[in-house]
Amino acid sequence: MTIEANIGSREEIERIRRVSDQLCTAHAALSDRFSGRALLLDIVVLVLSALVTALAFVDPKLLHHAMPESVDPAIVVGIFGLVVFCLTLVQSKTDWRGRGEAHKRSFTMYAEVKREAGYLLASAGDIPPREFQRLAARYDMASDVGSGVPESEFLRLKQKHLTKVEISKLLDKKPGASIWLTKLKLLIRDNWPWST
To answer: Which pLDDT tens digit goes with each residue over 10-39?
Structure first.
């Protein structure tokens, strides 16, 4: 079915909104993951760099008191320096910060598409073809320019999104409910043999 056949179709706009919402969750999760890894790696590299620098200025006689006698302090400083170097290589090759930022930009693009689709669906009457075309163009641009969701993670991220939606619905009815217990309730409900 072509987009032209669906111009102004509320069903097509609802599909775009639903898929954009799901992709918002996926890109937000990936952005958080990669940004968290980048931050942790930055902190470890900075702490170890400071430690190597501090050890380089400490008198080796003092270091002998802090370490076993069989360990040469120069070797310890060298090992820490090598670890810092290796972590810096990991940092540059994985580019977790850049990947996190790319997913954040994709999240922003899909969030704009989702918001605009929501506005169109909230309007009464027929949706003008021009408005639909603008929405479809923004959606296509987000798909073309944005980061992709890895195929190996798609189903897990879809599950995360659908779980989030289901928990949100349950919290609308019972706002004081524990999120952790609500997740457990869904897990039991959806995985036991008597569930349909």
So the answer is: 899 999 999 999 999 999 999 999 999 999
Distance CA 98, CA 105 (A): 11
Phi and psi at 58, nearest 5°, equal -85, 140
Helix, strand or coil, per DSSP, at residue 40: helix
In 3D space, the residue among 155, 90, 142 whose CA is nearest the CA of residue 112 turns out to be 142
Contacts of 154 (CB under 8 A, 6+ apart): 26
Predicted TM-score of the model (pTM): 0.81
For residue 178, what is the DSSP state? -
Distance CA 46, CA 57 (A): 17
Asked if 84 and 49 count as a contact pair (C-beta separation under 8 A), the reply is yes
Most confident of 16-30, 59-73, 117-131: 16-30
Q: Which two tokens stand for residue 23?
A: 């992709």
How far apart are alpha carbons 132 and 120 in whole angstroms?
A: 8
